[in-house]
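Subject: Re: docking follow-up (5-O-phosphono-D-xylulose)

Dear J.,

Thanks for your patience while I sorted out the input files. As discussed at Tuesday's group meeting, I've set up the holo structure prediction with 5-O-phosphono-D-xylulose included as the bound ligand rather than trying to dock it afterwards. The sequence and the ligand SMILES I used are pasted below, so you can double-check that they match what you have on your end before we go further.
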Amino acid sequence: MKNTIIAPSILASDFANLESESNMLNRSEADWFHIDIMDGRFVPNISFGIPVTAAINKHAQKPLDVHLMIVEPEKYLEDFKNAGAETLTVHYEACTHLHRTIGQIKELGCKAGVALNPHTPVSVLEDVIQDIDLVCVMSVNPGFGGQKFIENTYDKIEKLASLIKKSNSNALIEIDGGVNLDNAPKLIKAGADVLVAGSFVFNSKNPEDTIKNLKSINNSLVS
Ligand SMILES: O=C(CO)[C@@H](O)[C@H](O)COP(=O)(O)O
Ligand SMILES: [Fe+2]
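The structure tokens for the complex came back this morning:
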């Protein structure tokens, strides 16, 4: 049975209580911590940066999945690796020399991810798909939590899954934005391996239970 990875996004957590939010994720069935870095240039919002990532990493007992929504990400890869990143995801749209940047991430010993904005077709990854560990399909325009899921994402996942298969790549398909219990089963059926969920988890009454419910979707799909 496929084991979907659940990566709650810290962006929607209580920034004044990152230690207790981290401990909640440690106790929960979450697999990764999703860390959204926004620079006010690549996206029209600023979140937090390297010191806060390092502070979260002090408490996190699970891998940090760092989503860099920043221009010139190559300048900061090493800093984020030192802050605790296991996966470093850069945006296709922010990288002039994507192949080189992927190589730099691998040289640091991190997993290399590439994120695609909603308008970017999966075909742009044809020549690098074998070199990457994860493709983050943005199911909202990056920059903010709590946005509405874009329905075209299902088609995009199917196209990406077929590119990955054709290329003998091991890249995981991650979906980021507007994920909830209504769309998650369909996303998993279409081929998603990793689900990022921010507001759906942290705005719920019981985030630990919500994570458990997302994690158990696979079981219900089997029957
Ligand atoms: O990268 C981003 C947004 O740019 C995401 O990771 C959001 O943080 C997901 O939040 P929700 O849409 O689940 O509230
Ligand atoms: Fe993200």
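A couple of observations from a first look. Strands lie at 5-8, 33-38, 64-69, 85-91, 111-116, 134-138, 172-176, 194-197. DSSP finds nine helices and eight strands in the chain.

Let me know if you'd like me to rerun anything.

Best regards,
T.
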